[in-house]
Structures are given as C-alpha cells and as structure tokens.
Amino acid sequence: MYQSSARVFARIGATGGTTAPSVVLGRAVVLGASVAGLLAARVLAEHADSVLILDRDELDAGAGHRSGVPQGTQMHVLLPAGMHQIERWHPGFSRQALADGAALLTAATRRSYLDGRRKVGGSDVDMIAASRPFLEELLRRRTLELPNVTLRRARVTGLAFDGAAVSGVCHQSATNPAVVPADFVVDATGRSSRLGDWLEQCGWERPPMRRMLINLHYATATFRRTETDPVPSAVLAGCTARRGGDIAGAAFSAIEGDRWIVMLGGYGDSRPGRDVGDLLRRCRKDFPPEFARVVDNELLGPVRTYSQADSRRRDFHRLGRVPGGLVAVGDAVSSFNPIYGQGMSSAALHASCLSAYLRSGGDPRRPARDFHALQRVVVDAAWGMSTSADLARPSVPGPRPRGHRISRWISDQIVAASVTDPTIARRFDAVVEMRSHPTSLARPGTLARAVRVNRQAAR
User: Fold this and answer.
1) How confident is the model over 417-459, as pLDDT tens digits?
2) ω before 399 within 30° of 0 (cis)?
3) How far apart (Å, rounded) are the C-alpha atoms in residues 75 and 307?
4) 5 vs 352: CA distance, rounded Å
C-alpha cells in the first residue's frame, strides 16, 4: 500500500511500538565510530551475535577532538528528533549527559532572531547542548557497554564478496593486513567514504553522487561562562539572503565545562576567519546585544575555522545491482550544509531505518532495497530543506531545479510569517527540528495563514 513521504517519515521517527528483536546475523561490522556508526552498532546489537566497529582514530576515553571528525571543533546542535532517537536506543542518555555537564536549553530560555528581528516563541521542546566530542564520547561509552559490541582501531582498505553478498572487510591494523569475516556491513565513514571505489573495484556499480557547491565557512570560539542557569541559554541570529546576502548568521549556546560556544557562518567571500578581533567586533556590532555580553567573557583557546565546499549525496536507491548485506548511513550517504544542524539527527533517523528494515523479517543477506527506500525519505527531507535554502544565496551557483521559484516563494512566506505568528513558528520549528516532514509546511491551510500574516504585516 502506498504511503506518503510524510507518513513514512512519521513512522521512522516514532519511538515506540517496535516488534521484539531477533538475532538473524552472525557478525556485523560497522566502518567508522561516528555518531552514525555508533547508532548503527546499537541497532545491530539486537540482531547480530557480535558487532565489531572499526575506526582509524585512537578512541580512548576522553579522546577529545579527532582527525576523523574535522568539523568536531565547531558548534553542534542535537535536535529533538535526534535526541528522541538516541533515547530510544540508550534510555537515560539525556539524564546522563546533563549529569556529566551538558547544558539544558529550555524552550523558555532559547531565543531566535531573523534579520535582527526577534522571533516569537515556536518550539516548546527542550534541547541538550554540548560539544561534539562530549556527545560522541558518551554515545561511544554507552554503545561499548553492550556485551556483544567491540571497537578496534584499524584503517579499512576494502571489502570482500562471496557471490552476491558482502563477506568481509579488508583492513590494516597495528599488526598486518587482514580480512574480518562479516555477514553484514555498515559504512559510516563520512562524506569522504570510499565505498563507491570498493564496489567498482569488485565489479559492482558505483552509487551516483550529486554535488552542490556551497562554499560554506565557519568560525567558532569558546568563552568562560559564569552563570549556572543563564538566560538566554542559546541564541540563533539568522540572516536571509535578501538582507544578509552571503552572511549566514551567528549563534551561541551554553555547553559543558561552564563554557559558551559562539559560531559565525558565511558563504563565498563572507568568510569568517581566525582573527579574534574580527570575531569580537562582528559579535558586538552585527548581531543582537546578547552576543556582545557573551564575548565579553574570557576567551578560552583560539578561534577555529571549518570550510565545506559542497553538499554531497550518494543515491544508493538508484543502483540496479547492489550486493546483499551492505548499507551506508550518515554522511556517507548524504552530507549537506551543516549550518542547519540536522546532521546528527539525520544519522539517528538512519539508524531507525536500519532497525525497521532488520525487524521486517526479510533476509539481511539480500540487497537492502527496503532499507534504501526508507532512508531515502529521511535524506530527501533534509537534503531538500538545506539545498533550497542554500540556492537563495548569491554565491551558490546551482543549478536551480524545476519548480525552484515556486518552492522558494512558499519557503519565503513561511519563514517571514514565523517571525511574528506563533502557529506558523511552531509548525516551522517542528520541520527544522526534524519532528515533521517538510511537506507539512506546504499544506493549503498553513500557506494561506502565512500569506495572510505577511500581508497584514506589510500594511
């Protein structure tokens, strides 16, 4: 029976009502101990005798920033959809994160601005804020507490196949090259994934890749935080393309370690750099007064930058021939503009797609087409939102897809109305937070309300 993307998206995001797990695999191997990889390992632990995670980085407790996550020094946001999924697989994760020092961002203490105008309250969901290494380390610790999950440091060099299915993972460890037998393999090696190369080398199809140039730049710094329960606890100051051109905006949040983390973002030539003076000047001059108060605190460490040239998407669902027992998750499938904060939550939803697939009763040694179909709904939602917003920027070259002008007009109406109308703001935030599918914003009632609100504001 046909189900709309919105219905499928809601089913994937549900946190209850699953059937009991069953062991259907011997050994499963996960490539990469990223957020996506760790959540995939947690799901596989219910369906495999053993789960082995391979990662090239040294991942002792308290490892901090690591080379495998180059954007790890930047500000991260774990949206409610992602938090709910992590709680599904690791009950009590939020409580443990807060006990370990993460900051609670209540709906009442968060503020948002658009082009300098303070927005009405929208989302009523609390959030947790922490640095990427903090969240990853806690998630890794919880996952490795499972008795059938282990982690090994190794550099993956390829895959082995037996007929129509994957049979092992080739890797280089501290000793010698080796092949680990595997009944199921998950690629979670990120946007630089070499899975396409390995498939092509063994006679399989390479998944088609879509790239969209965005030329995005971040600059992030941390400051001392003296308030225990600060108000506001987090502020997002966005800039539309119409008003800000290629200036994306700025944000700050309380995080663990009694710190503030502050981020500036821009496209093209609007590149925030490592200069401390420039960051301080812009926070004090170009953004709401809350930013000045935060950066007046003691600076902790250097300004760190990160650039991303493009958004990438590998369309595994388009493959005619695909080996059984093999899937990809996280940025290895879709790595879009990180400024929207949807990466970790998308990875969590990919894990839920994997759970639904493995619980469906199909043969996991056959091509995972049902998994790809579920995952595509999540990828389409996040990719469509981010690329549509990026294409409004002057420096983003496109190409613009068919119907872009109409979709852009609808988006502009919704965004503008979300500044002053609480109903539109709640619906808009639910989509941004990945709790609702983007098509919910195009419903006639929502769009008509947004147009009415904007016409009244223009009088």
Assistant:
1) 999 999 999 999 999 999 999 999 989 999 999 999 999 988 8
2) yes
3) 13
4) 15
